[in-house]
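Thread: "does anyone have the structure for this chain?"

Original post by V.I.:
We have the sequence but no experimental structure in hand. Need at least a predicted one for the grant figures.
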Amino acid sequence: MKNDFLDKTNINPIIVAVNSSEMIEAAINSQCEIIFLLKGSIFNLKGIVDKVKENGKNIYVHIDLMDGFSKDVAALKYICQIIKPDGIITTKSSLIKAAKQLNMFAIQRLFIIDSLSLETGINSVKQNKPDAIEIMPGIMPKVTKIISQETKLPIITGGLIKDKEDVVNSIKAGAIGISTSKLEIWEM
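Reply from O.Q.:
Generated one for you, tokens below.
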């Protein structure tokens, strides 16, 4: 699981962030190897995941943002056993721990807004040991570098990525991937 994620980000570090059902086809048809699903529901999640995987792409479900699912271990088990994405994204420490117990690839999303959230985020990552970290907003190369050095885990940056310069700066700072919903960046 972890090697597959790393291999695919090596092929293309741009990760498609899908925040509407209308974006699924464009995401599948893009050059990107990985899709972060940020919008879905109990009614369409399995169909989306199956379609993405049938097209040879990896899909990671942001469990906190899926409608109709509790944000608890029972929902996580259901998603793991029935929906079968390549992994999950969450801000919740308890779900990172549970995902690891289920042998799911787990990405911990951190919102960094000040020094305290940076310190708390690093401590949470060290305690929970996710497979990767997504830093939001992604336009903070200094913070990306600090988190990369402190945790030694794969870093994805996302949020407010506007252009090629943001992508390059993130990679130079230590990110292995950049998640974005901007179609023009998908094809860089």
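V.I.: this helps a lot. The longest helix spans residues 115-128.
O.Q.: and The mean pLDDT is 96.
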